[in-house]
């Protein structure tokens, strides 16, 4: 048995249970563990709706700073914005469904929590808007490790190639080969990992960027790692 870990990160409905592990509880626990380990200074935390909300509530508790709803989701009729195959349509949907609140952003150092980064195009545009709405600093905390490998099973990111992943683009820039030393780039804390994350943060215009570690995510899920599929993070799988 290897259950997709992304069910708890993104796909799963908050009230759902998989192998007895509730989605919202896992997101909250994962966020709380991240928040308790984060030494960054900030005035408040905010979640990117919807799957970032469970994480940010735990993050706020773990870090001990308030949760503010600095972004509101306009929900009528809009699908998940990663779904359309056309990049222009993806960007349009992302822009129209997430609405910043200037009153909660102006002059604030804000930590935002989100589930993952796939291509990064939507986040880059959103970060720019957050600064335009008066945010003093914009920090991003991601609920899962960097996506290094495309999913060969369910294709959650719908990439035509692994090169649509922002991680692979950065690896190619650094190495001249998008497939070189992937195990090192997938290892939290390695020099390659730290350089990759730093460059992604710069590309997105962030004040800082941090990803959850695979160990913390698996611990929050509460199942043995051998029973959870983590292929998109570390390339491991049983075909």
Which features does this protein show?
239 residues; alpha/beta; four-stranded parallel β-sheet; two-stranded parallel ribbon; 11 helices; 14% strand; globular
Structure description:
The protein is α/β, with parallel strands linked by helices. It has helices spanning 6-11, 23-37, 51-63, 87-97, 102-105, 121-132, 166-175, 182-185, 191-204, 214-221, 231-234; strands at 3-4, 17-18, 21-22, 44-47, 71-73, 98-100, 109-114, 137-142, 208-211, 228-229. Helix 2 (23-37) runs parallel beside helix 3 (51-63). It starts with a strand and ends in a 5-residue tail after the last helix.
Could you give a short description of this structure?
The chain is α/β, with parallel strands linked by helices. It is built from 11 helices and 10 strands.
What is the radius of gyration? Answer: 17 Å
Instruction: Give the distance, in angstroms, between the N- and C-terminal Cα atoms.
Output: 12 Å
Low-confidence stretches: none
Note the main sheet. 4 strands, parallel
Mean of residue pLDDT? 89
**Envelope shape:** globular
Secondary-structure content class: alpha/beta
